[in-house]
Amino acid sequence: MKKYVLLSILFLLSCILTRPVYSQTAALISDHLTAQLSLISEADVALAKATLHIAYGHTSHGSQLITGMEGLLSFKPGYDTLYAFNPGGLDGALDLREPLFSGASDLGNPDFTAWATATRTYLDAHLEVNVIIWSWCGQVSDASAANITTYLTLMEGLEQDYPGVSFVYMTGHLDGEGLIGNLHLRNEQIRAYCRENNKILFDFADIESYDPDGNYFLDKLANDNCDYDWDGDGILEPPQEGGDDRNWAIDWQTSHTMGVDWYDCDPAHTQALNGNLKAYAAWYLWAGIAKRKKLTIPCDFDGDGDSDIGVWRPSTGKWFIKDQTSPLWGASGDIPVPEDYDGDGDSDIAVWRPSNGTWYIQGQSAIAWGVSTDIPVPGDYDGDGDVDLAVWRPSNGRWYIQGQSAVAWGVATDIPVPGDYDGDGDTDIGVWRPATGKWFIKDQTSPLWGASGDIPVPGDYDGDGDVDIAVWRPSNGRWYIQGLSSTQWGVSTDIPVPGDYDGDGDTDIGVWRPATGKWFIKDQTSPFWGASGDIPQAQNVWIWKQTGLIP
Question: What average pLDDT does the chain have?
Answer without folding.
Answer: 91
